[in-house]
Amino acid sequence: MDATGQQEQHTGSAGGDLYGVLLYYKYAEVPDAAALAAFYEAHCRSLALVGRVRVGPDGVNATLGGQMNALEKHIAEMSSNDLFVGTDFKLASCDDPVDERVARECGFTSLSVRVVKELVTLCCNPALAPPEISSAGRHLSAAEFHSVLQNVAGTSLNAVASAEKKEVVVLDARNVYETRIGKFNVPNAKTLDPEIRQYSDLPSWIDKHAEQLHGKSILMYCTGGIRCEMASAYIRSKGEGFENVFQLYGGIQRYLEQFPDGGYFEGKNFVFDHRISVGSLKENILGACLICDSSFDDYSSRCRCSHCRMLVLVCPTCQDSTEEYACELCQKNGKEPCQLSTGQDCKIQRGLSESFEKPSISYHNVTSKVSWSDGSEQLKRLRILCLHGFRQNASSFKGRTSALSKKLKHITELVFVDAPHELSFVYQPIRGHCSDKPSPLSVTPKRKFAWLIAPNSHCNPEQNWRAADVPFDPLQYQQQTEGFEESYTYLENAISHMGKFDGILGFSQGAAMAALFCRQQQKMCGFPKFRFGMFCSGYPAPVGDFGNEPIKLPSLHCFGNGDGHDRQIANRASAELAGLFEQDCCSVVEHDMGHIIPTRSPYIDRIKDFLSSFL
């Protein structure tokens, strides 16, 4: 449900029981991003605030929710810091979050503070330096922006301080799903909608359509202003003919506060919090259902494209008859909605790929409905591909996660698969009292596997145990840099045999591999092919370059807290992996139970909540 008629501009002290949302950003040099992030963590928790804070060397970007009096205290505290001089704190009262599922997906059920390399990623090519933020376009207040639009058909462009009249173009810097429910509509002005899936696609669109911008007065806008900062700097970096770039300061939010009737803005402003969208006094609907094309602009159902996971508009009637969708951009690329089908018992025999022979892997693909003991039915269980850790196998990982499987049995089906690299049988010698020779092992060795291996590793299995050359190193994962190509091909072949999965779960090295696998799918296809990912005690494998573009996948990251409870994978390594994913749909669960996947409350409840949003 949108917040039309429910949001109020903040004009003064608010009552203690009122709920509010605060948005602000500040581009400035941050000497110690980690220290500032730690301050945010402690300060926001003391005020019971939820939402997202991103701190980078180039500034801060925050979206917070909580009681209005707490938000006012936060503003007062940050305003006392010289770093935030001149910051536009956009505070609005609204209803409390009523839809737990929407609030959770938007990150408004907990606090997430992250240190990032840059506040917004304009270009996903790490070889290209971002434009200088000091070159950003000139800020226009909502009144100035409106004045320009009023005079587009006239003879003066005084509000843009132009020495000569130039043709005005209005450029939307937002994603296509945002523009579908609201945009500026200005008579006699050329409005450009890049129809991009994500912000990092904007530079390539600008490059391809530079002739439409050259020599023009360019008026840019976005939700709250931050995306226009870097994008306007990018346009101006093109040099002569691209100097006249202006941006709506405070974004659409400030404009609608200044012009409650909507002014030249039609429809609703999409926002990245539990409100979903904010409208004006107008009640016009710009959006349309993806399936039947009827007027519709409500994203609260959180329907997503089956291919790229972008939000799509689907009316309630069509939601009842259609379970999977292809967004307009995927349809333009010839993709159709995936078809759901009931499964059957299957066997994967040896030879999932020509390069590797593997033991037979049995799995069961459940039917669309699962019966409860009382005879009622629930929705289709989520089918999750599970990747074990280093020197484990599918059987041992299944055993280790038996408690997790029981706790999730009504909503998931966990499918386990061995990694392709079979390891030698090694053990840590235990020397006897009267001999320096290692004591022999009499147990029958069980086959162990890995997704990634160290250079020059001996991966041909031996028939007998051999002693390890050196003591086991808990940081050995940092040297495991080879074998990804074979593992990627192996998993693609396995999935083609086993059928579609809703999600992927990885533990330790399996989590690192799962992230690499999703990243590679995104590079090749534009997006991962799963609906979600779960990464437990993971780390960013030192394989290739993740680049600046986040992995576009709803993700849950579960790992030991910073008190040294996980002796295998450092807390900061797991946190770094979480930072590589799209933060708007990234959840983190930190626990104190070591190198395991926790199954007791409150951790299992957080895991269930995450999975339930995909049922």
TrEMBL record:
Domain of life, source organism: Eukaryota
SUPFAM superfamilies recorded: alpha/beta-Hydrolases, Rhodanese/Cell cycle control phosphatase
Entry-linked PROSITE patterns: RHODANESE_3
Pfam families: FSH1, Rhodanese, Rhodanese_C, UPF0176_N
Coiled coil (UniProt feature): none
Segments forming domain Rhodanese: 164-264
PANTHER family: THIOSULFATE SULFURTRANSFERASE/RHODANESE-LIKE DOMAIN-CONTAINING PROTEIN 2, THIOSULFATE SULFURTRANSFERASE_RHODANESE-LIKE DOMAIN-CONTAINING PROTEIN 2
Name under which the protein is recorded: Rhodanese-like domain-containing protein 6
Taxonomic path: Eukaryota, Viridiplantae, Streptophyta, Embryophyta, Tracheophyta
Originating gene: LOC100284947
